Amino acid sequence: MSQALVIVAHGSHLNPDSSTPTFAHADTIRESGAFDEVREAFWKEEPSFREVLRTVEATEVFVVPLFISEGYFTEQVIPRELRLEGWNVADWDSDGTSADHATLEARDVGKTVHYCGPVGTHDSMADVIIQRAQSVTDDPAVGSGFGLAVVGHGTERNANSAKAIHYHANCIREQGRFDEVQALFMDESPEVDDVTDHFESDDVVVVPLFVADGFHTQEDIPADMGLTDETGTYSVPGTVDGTRIWYSGAVGTEPLLADVILERANDAGADIESAIERVKELTGGVVTA
User: Fold this and answer.
1) Binning pLDDT at 50, 70 and 90, where does residue 287 land?
2) Integer angstrom CA distances of residue 244 from 138, 247, 251
3) pLDDT value of residue 33
4) Is pLDDT of 144 > 90?
């Protein structure tokens, strides 16, 4: 039986770069040969969520949301637009960060759909955040002597938004690699505006847990931290209150994120173990024996 992967993301009518990571990760997975078909679909761009299953020939489809947290889009919009019969968010049996997958039928197109949790809450996202820190510092051993800030949007409308940030910050803190690890936010406390108040380290890597670079990651967060100059630009590293800030930009642009997408599909039953190792080799991840 042939298998297809569909990566679903938000997209944007206003920011042409919003969908760039989605297409890049799809290309990486396509080149790995993990699936017979790989498709992208968006809420705000074409191809749309509503039509994408009609473009797939395989009868078994793994759908992976390229979203950071569980919430309105992953729990309501995507299942509704894909017309997943019998969908109930309780099928994920999640505490807000532990959604795995649910298998449902999309009878109008005759397909079995393995609907996965968002990439942003998968355990291996911690590896991508660390990889992002390595990339921005150009230091594969970065950690000792450094603080790490994992930054999310945060919103009182969705408690799960902050849960994902805290979850990964806690996971990385428990590894003991960095001297300090903090979860910070744009729209709730503790805020990224006061980044230097939360660290004693002279060097702090700041990694925004966003899917794509856009207004928030390229303008809001650097300005909120006091990193930008009078022209609105900033250097890496930059200095804020005597602390060197290594600002990475959106974690979703890190090539290793393609591995998290495959891990989600693998958890849902896709037979792609060898492809995961090939993608890790391509994107700089650690290949386990």
Assistant:
1) very low
2) 15, 9, 20
3) 93
4) yes
Shortest CA distance to 99 belongs to which of 164, 168, 154? 164
Q: What are 103-115's pLDDT values in tens digits?
A: 999 989 999 999 9
CA separation for the pair 276, 118 (Å, rounded):
18
Give pLDDT tens digits for 173-194.
Answer: 999 999 999 999 998 899 999 9
Are 251 and 130 contacting, i.e. CB atoms less than 8 angstroms apart?
Answer: no
Print the SS3 string covering the chain.
CCEEEEEEECCCCCCCCCCHHHHHHHHHHHHHCCCCEEEEEECCCCCEHHHHHHHCCCCEEEEEECCCCCCHHHHHHHHHHHCCECCCHHHHCCCCCCCCEEEEEECCCCEEEEEECCHHHCCCHHHHHHHHHHHHHCCCCCCCCEEEEEEECCCCCCHHHHHHHHHHHHHHHHHCCCCEEEEEECCCCCEHHHHHHHCCCCEEEEEECCCCCCHHHHHHHHHHHCCCCCCCCCCCCEEECCEEEEECCCHHHCCCHHHHHHHHHHHCCCCCHHHHHHHHHHHCCCCCC
CA distances from 195 to 149, 225, 277 (A): 8, 6, 36
pTM value?
Answer: 0.92
| 49-105 per-position pLDDT tens digit | 999 999 999 999 999 999 999 999 999 999 999 999 999 999 998 998 999 999 999
Separation between Cα atoms, residue 98 and residue 125, nearest integer Å = 13
**Buried b / exposed e across 128-139, counting CB within 10 Å, b at 16+?**
bbbbbbbbbbee
